[in-house]
Every structure is written in structure tokens, then in C-alpha cells.
Amino acid sequence: MGLKTFKRGIHPPDGKAYTNTKAIEILMPDEGALMVFPLSQHIGAPATPIVQKGDRVLLGQKIAEAGGFVSSPIHSSVSGTVKDIKPMSTPGGAVVNSIIIENDGLMEEDPSLGKDTDYKNFDKEKIVNKIKEAGIVGLGGAGFPTHVKLSPPPDCKIDHIIVNAAECEPYLTTDHRVMLEKTERLVEGLNIMLKLFPEAKGYIAIEANKPDAIEKISEVAANYPNISVVKLLTKYPQGSEKQLIYAVSGREVESGKLPANAGCIVDNVDTVLAIERAVAKDRPLMRRIVTLSGDAVANPGNYQVRIGMNMKDFIEKTGGFKEEPGKVIAGGPMMGPAMCNLDVPFIKTSSALVCLTPASCVLPEEMNCIRCGKCVDACPMGLMPTLLNKCALDKDYAAFVANDGIDCIECGSCSYVCPAKRHLAQTLRITKREAMALKKAGKI
Q1: pLDDT for the residue 1
Q2: Quick one: 270 and 380 in the same domain?
Q3: In terms of residue numbers, what domain contains 140?
Q4: Does residue 211 form part of some domain?
Q5: Are residues 387 and 266 in the same domain?
Q6: Are residues 258 and 394 in the same domain?
Q7: What is the pLDDT of residues 309-366, one digit of tens each?
Q8: In the predicted model, what is the mean pLDDT of the chain?
Q9: pLDDT for 114
Q10: How far apart are CA 310 and CA 35, in angstroms?
């Protein structure tokens, strides 16, 4: 059987050689470091603080409660004292109300955590509640609360649980390392998810550029009759949810619909690992694994960091920059935002820091569109980026919506292939948000 994939797409240089052989290193915050926990680290309502300035908190203690059904609680990743609750900057540039905790260096743990659990006998409700209470959200970047994703409407018959192990974004290698270093736990995390949907089968979808991971995951998955490995063609954006669903199941998610409407649930590798920790080990989400990469850093690698840890301190602890970067990207270079400030915390959705020298991140000057159609050939959603770009520049939001601009997944494929160096993805991203707001307000 050939490698599975989706329609269209591109093949950018993957940049993974910087870190794909680097084992995960644990990096802890220093005693006295200020840990910052923004209350909006997920899609949905912000979390609500349940601690006050001056309170002493323990490692793993819940410090903010979910602000609604589509929301997620937050836990302290250190023990220490709450110094303040005030607006602070986040990696994406937003200013968000945040809990600031001074790390006392003791890592004194909440005594209610980590108790032995007979999770194999848990019913569905208890499994979902464990995931909810652990504060797990999509760790691939979107940040959708996982307990909501695992509670689809009754009319959605789920028969595919897909682990997104494509890791198609250039430079990122954390999922690859997790598959090699935490194989059994990852597969067991998928098995836990399958307990929620007895009629479903599990699929771990891995791109062909990770043969060592395919081999190791396949060996472990062979012990689970309802789990199989799907080998994917190496192509970007293979890890995009709709594209991955098509590659694995052959199904298309209709415009405006969710994966559950196509009978599928998709979670990325680190999310599934967090599910295993929450259900089998009774541990909330307090850490995540990030890639530090690019030609501007002294020691590229994969690091396990505490949520709330300062990014500037993190880079200094890894050896700092070998050359002043021209750009630091939060995430991968195709979809991650460029950062204007490193004095911000790692949050639940922080997947990577890609640090590029000025020579590696030159933004070419735009030229006139030459009507070559390469952006149309590349778009994984089958859109016409050049037409949508015109709508964006004209601020014709009605035409943007009429030409399915809302369906843009902001993958950047159009900008990558454009010989005229048009800033297609950038204008489409901005216009999409403006058009969605107008549509919600009934003005389109």
C-alpha cells in the first residue's frame, strides 16, 4: 500500500536536522524565578483565578478554574507564593490577565496528586472528568479544550481516533522524539481515548521522514488489536486537521463542520501523552515539550519545560544565541507568529522557538501578481488565494466570504510558492479575522 496523503500541498525544506537526533532534556526554572500563568491559554472562556496575592501554592495545585464548558483550568507548575494577578504579555502578543508565582525551588507537591489509579476500570465519565480537571488542551497549537473534543454531540458517531504524529511544520521535532522516547505511554494514551468510543479504531499517522518512529510505534501498537500505524507522504501541511482526516480516512470535513461530524477525533502526540499522564498517573498539565531550533541559537534541541517559565530565561539556560537573531518565531516558520518580546512565558500551546539569523529571514519585497496560478495549485483547501488577496486589499469582506475565505487554514503554502513574493497568507489571515467578526455581527 502506498503512502497516504491529501490533495495539493507543498514540500518546503524541513530544517529538522538541527534537532531530530537530540534527546529530550528536562530544563527547570531557577529558585526565585517568576512564573507567569495567563488565564487564556486555550480556545474559549478565560479561566477564573481561585488564588489570591500572598497565597502559597503547591506544585500541581489548581490555581484557576475553567470559566465555562469551553474552557480549561490551570495548575501551578512549581511551589511558591502568588506575587500578583495582573495583565501580562503572552507569546502571541496579547496582554492577558495572569497569575504570577515566585518559585521557591522546593517543588513541594500537592498531596492529592499522583495517587495510584485503577484507570483500566474507569468509566467514560470519569476518564473525561480526569482529562478536564487536568487542564488538558490541544498542545499542537490550537488549544481547544480536550474534554470538549472528547464529548461530541450524540449524533456524531465517532469511529476514527487519529493521533496527529505527522509533525509536518519545518524545524519541529518534539513529536518525533516523544514517539521514540515515550512510545509505550503514547500508545497507551490512545488506548485510553478508545475506551470512550468502543466502536472506534485508533490510528497513529506518521510522515515517512520518521522511519525510526514508524518502526518503534508499530512494534508497540502490534499489541493493541484496535490500533494501527498509518504511513503518510512527507508533505506540508499534512498535519492540518482536515488534511490529516482526508489522508487517513478518505473523508472530507465540510465547510463549517467539525471533525466529529466526519466521525473523527484528532489529537497531537503531546496531547495524547498528557491524557495518559492525567488518567493513568493522576497528573495535571504542568509541562510541555518544545523544540528550540534555528541557526541563531547555540544549542538547538528538544526540551521539557514548565508551563509559566520565562522564554528569555529558557534561552539563556540553553546557552543563548550564537548570533543576534533577525527573527524569533513562536512555533514553526510556516504558521508561527514572529515575536517582538521574549520576556513572556511558555503557555500550554507553546510548541517551539525558531530563532533565525538576519540572513535566514529576509522578507522579500512584494511584486505584482503574474497570474501563474501556483498558489491555487498549492492550496490544500482548494481556494484561490490570489482572488482572496484582492478581496483583502479591497476590504471587500462580502466577496472574501463568498469565495470561501473563511475556510483558509492559514498554512502559508500560497506565500511559499508565490514567485512574486506576494504576502498572501499575511493578508488572508488578517482579513479572515475581520470577516468572521463582521459575519458574527450580522454585517455580512
Answers
A1: 54
A2: no
A3: 16-21+114-281
A4: yes
A5: no
A6: no
A7: 999 999 999 999 999 999 999 999 999 999 999 999 999 999 999 999 999 999 889 9
A8: 95
A9: 79
A10: 7
Q: Are residues 272 and 386 in the same domain?
A: no
Check whether 98 has a pLDDT greater than 60: yes
Q: Can you point out the beta strands (E) in 294-374? A: 301-306, 327-330, 352-356
Q: How confident is the model at residue 443 (pLDDT cuts 50, 70, 90)?
A: confident
Whether the predicted pLDDT of 256 surpasses 90? no
Query: Of 281, 306, 336, which closes a domain?
Result: 281
DSSP state of 334: T
Are 131 and 269 within one domain? yes
pLDDT of residue 91: 92
CATH number at residue 125: 3.40.50.11540
269 shares a domain with 389: no
Spell 4-20 as b/e; 16+ CB within 10 A means b: bbbebbbebebbbebbb
User: Torsion angle, CA of 12/13/18/23, rounded to 10 degrees?
Assistant: 60
- Distances from the Cα of 69 to the Cαs of 41, 43, 158, 222, 251, in angstroms? 15, 11, 21, 37, 28
Measured CA to CA, the distance from residue 33 to residue 374 in angstroms comes to 49
Q: For residue 98, how many C-alpha atoms fall within 13 Å in the half-sphere facing its CB?
A: 23
Question: Burial of 125 by CB count in 10 Å (0-12 exposed, 13-18 middle, 19+ buried)?
Answer: exposed
- Asked if 121 and 250 sit in the same domain, the reply is yes
Place of cell 480549561: 72
In a domain, 102, yes or no: no
Last residue within a domain, chosen from 222, 253, 281: 281
Mean pLDDT of the 295-321 span: 97
* Distances from the Cα of 142 to the Cα of 5, 19, 43, 331, 349, angstroms: 22, 23, 7, 11, 7
pLDDT tens-digit profile of 101-149? 999 999 999 998 877 678 888 999 999 999 999 999 999 878 999 999 9
Query: In terms of Cα–Cα distance, which of 167, 266, 281, 163 is closest to 224?
Result: 163
The DSSP annotation for 128-157 comes to HHHHHHTT-B-TTTT--BHHHHTS--TT--
Give how many domains the chain has, as a whole number.
2
Q: How many angstroms separate the CA atoms of 424 and 376, rounded?
A: 11
Residues 241 and 385 in one domain: no
